[in-house]
Design goal:
Length: 241
């Protein structure tokens, strides 16, 4: 068994796999041409909420974050929630394509490493699902991303650092104040000692309005977290938030 496990990784590297976007066989889940065409770190984003900033903008953060600072301190997003990435997110979340989670983690890790003087969190906490939704889906996509991301960045993953204490409607179906009300008081931290004085990284697949991440960050802050950073694969454009 040990020998089989030792040989599995080198063998997997030799076998061709189809690119998740174009289907071209190669050694990576995302081929070089698709990476060059669809994945770029050039877009300037607000360091707090990760909303895009205008080209050439030199401000430290967007106007919305200056006016009303969120509960979280920073957000890292690998890409925008747009074609073709939105399709892959849906395939992971609703199609059970768990292999996409490792690719998302890889691209997110690259985005983190590209940031100058990034402060690495002490722990990664995937946004928890409620028991009903977890049972229906069979997995938590945020946890599936957090596990390989933690290995790539050398950060411990704490899946039970927070828990969702009540079921909620899907945020994607709500807008404005209804989103805020939907996630109010839904998270709890079972062990304050694990949070107090530490930098917590919250991992999720998509950040839309930021209400869910903001509520979870607020709970961590109330339990003594020194800093909270969102680490998300995709950020929706502002018009979809």
């Amino acid at each position: 068994m040990a020998l089989a496990m030792a040989l599995a990784k080198p063998l997997a590297m030799l076998l061709p796999c189809p690119c998740v976007l174009c289907g071209q066989h190669g050694r990576e889940a995302l081929c070089a041409p698709c990476r060059a065409q669809f994945f770029s770190q050039a877009e300037s984003r607000c360091p707090v909420c990760a909303d895009p900033l205008p080209p050439g903008c030199t401000v430290l953060m967007c106007g919305a974050c200056v006016t009303r600072r969120p509960s979280y301190d920073a957000t890292v997003a690998a890409t925008a929630y747009a074609l073709p990435w939105d399709r892959l997110v849906l395939e992971l979340k609703f199609g059970g394509q768990l292999a996409h989670a490792r690719l998302f983690a890889q691209l997110l890790a690259e985005a983190v490493r590209a940031l100058p003087a990034f402060t690495v969190p002490a722990l990664l906490c995937p946004v928890p699902l409620g028991p009903g939704r977890l049972a229906g889906r069979g997995f938590n996509q945020a946890l599936e991303i957090a596990r390989p991301l933690g290995r790539m960045l050398g950060i411990a993953v704490a899946p039970r650092l927070a828990e969702r204490v009540q079921e909620t409607s899907a945020q994607s179906k709500l807008h404005g104040g209804r989103r805020r009300a939907n996630v109010a008081h839904v998270f709890a931290v079972p062990d304050r000692a694990l949070v107090e004085g530490r930098h917590i990284g919250i991992v999720d697949d998509v950040m839309s309005s930021g209400q869910t991440l903001g509520e979870l960050a607020a709970v961590f802050k109330r339990h003594g977290a020194a800093r909270v950073t969102n680490m998300v694969f995709a950020r929706t454009p502002p018009r979809h938030s």
